[in-house]
Design a protein that fits this description.
Elements (H helix, E strand, L loop, with lengths): L9 E6 L2 H11 L7 E3 L4 E6 L3 H17 L4 E6 L2 E6 L8
Antiparallel strand pairs: 1-3, 1-4, 2-3, 4-5
Length: 94
C-alpha cells in the first residue's frame, strides 16, 4: 500500500464475505481507486472519492449492490465515523 494514501476521502466498506468483496471490485474498481483486504474474519473494500458528489453516487450504487447481493445492510466508515448502509428499497409495492 502507498505510504501517501489519504483516508480523509476514503470510504471503507465492511463486507460479510469474500464474494461480496469481489462483487464490489467488479462494480466499482474501474471508477474508484482503492484497495481491498480479505482474511478469515474481516472483508474490506475501500474507494477513494474526490468530492461529495462522488460520495453520494458511490453510496447510492452501493445500496443497490447490497440489495442485489441479498444483504440487509453493511457498515462503512468515512472520516473516522462508522455508519450503516441499508440495502436499496424496491420501488415495487407489495
Amino acid at each position: 500500500m502507498d505510504d501517501d494514501y489519504d483516508f480523509e476521502d476514503t470510504l471503507i466498506f465492511e463486507l460479510p464475505a469474500f464474494e461480496d468483496v469481489e462483487a464490489f471490485n467488479d462494480r466499482f474498481r474501474q471508477r474508484w481507486e482503492g484497495w481491498s483486504h480479505a482474511d478469515e474474519d474481516l472483508w474490506l473494500f475501500t474507494a477513494h472519492v474526490d468530492g461529495s458528489g462522488d460520495i453520494a453516487t458511490l453510496l447510492r450504487e452501493a445500496q443497490e449492490l447490497v440489495a442485489e447481493l441479498g444483504l440487509p445492510s453493511i457498515r462503512f466508515c468515512l472520516d473516522g465515523r462508522v455508519y450503516v448502509l441499508d440495502a436499496a428499497r424496491s420501488d415495487v409495492a407489495a
